[in-house]
Amino acid sequence: EVQLVESGGGLVQPGRSLKLSCAASGFTFSNYYMAWVRQAPKKGLEWVATISTSGSRTYYPDSVKGRFTISRDNAKSSLYLQMNSLKSEDTATYYCARLGTGKGYFDYWGQGVMVTVSS
Amino acid sequence: DIQMTQSPSLLSASVGDRVTLSCKASQNIYKYLNWYQQKLGEAPKLLIYYTNSLQTGIPSRFSGSGSGTDYTLTISSLQPEDVATYFCQQYNSWFTFGSGTKLEIK
Question: Per-residue pLDDT averaged across B24-42, rounded?
Answer without folding.
Answer: 97
